Amino acid sequence: MGQVGLEHYLVVSALLFCLGLLGTIVRRNVLIIYLSLELMLNAANLALVALSRFKDNLNDHVSGQMMVFFIITVAAAEVAVGLALIVALYRKNASAHTEDLATLRF
Predict the structure, then answer these.
(1) What is the pLDDT along the chain (106 residues), one digit of tens a residue?
(2) Domain ranges in the chain?
(3) pTM for this prediction
(4) Which CATH architecture has domain 6-104?
């Protein structure tokens, strides 16, 4: 067995992204769609970290990892807003299906 290279990380990242995309397209539950979106975001983070790790320039190592840090920060804010919307939907309709999203309008 050889070393784990950049191609391996990118293949895993692509598989995770495709799995998240499939979950976003196929599922009807808002919580599952939300988790699939987070999976796609983490797949992009994995690709960025892998690409920054295998670059020769030291400055590229830091830039890719800093981009991931900012993406994680934005994802934390997304979690707060997204989960608040899901809780509001569930309290109003006692379900979390995508068809019920129109009922959140005022």
Answers:
(1) 678 888 999 999 999 999 999 999 998 888 888 889 999 999 999 998 888 888 766 565 677 778 888 888 888 888 888 888 778 777 777 766 766 666 666 5
(2) 6-104
(3) 0.77
(4) Orthogonal Bundle (1.10)
- Dihedral-angle region of residue 89 (phi above 0 means left; psi in -120 to 50 means alpha; beta otherwise): alpha
Q: What is the per-residue DSSP string for the chain? A: -----HHHHHHHHHHHHHHHHHHHHH--BHHHHHHHHHHHHHHHHHHHHHHHHT-SSHHHHHHHHHHHHHHHHHHHHHHHHHHHHHHHHHHHHS--BGGGGGGG--
Orientation of helix 6-26 relative to helix 30-53, angle to 10°: 170
CA dist list (Å): 100 to 64, 69, 88: 39, 34, 11
d(CA 41, CA 21): 10
